[in-house]
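Protein modeling request. Please complete all fields; requests missing the sequence field cannot be processed.
Requester role: graduate student
Desired output: 3D structure, token encoding
Chains: 1
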Amino acid sequence: MRRTAVRAAGGPLAPPAAPAPEPEPESAPAPAPAPEPRRLQTEFPFELPRGYVDEAGTVHRDGVMRLATARDELVPLRDIRVQENPAYLSVVLLGRVITRLGTLPMMHDGVVENMFASDLAFLQDFYRQVNAEGHTRAAVRCPHCAEPFEVELGGSRLGES
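Delivered output (161 residues):
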């Protein structure tokens, strides 16, 4: 059988009609991008109220404290100085978790031993804040309007808590 073109009314011969394109199947929506993994803040900068004074007379105030691990809290318990005087625990512990202080080449408990009492108290408080919540901010609500906001627990000024 022979195919012939259909003549449009009053016009030239029209080519045979092309088959209608088949509708594309509906595709599933693109998967949502995976949420970026949350990063845990493990290091916290601080500034000492007075500062550590080294043998050369240089004052070191800016430092970094990292989150404590279970090991950080257990190892000092075996230290003979801590066994003889439990108050020494915080000195040894801070010597482990402070990773940088000013331009000191190395941080250790001997540095903490020679800090001013106000700096030691500041670091003990900072350690508790950082390791209790993972940050030094707390979510609170205004007692008047009930609007939520955050407050800095470490104080807004140097050495304030």
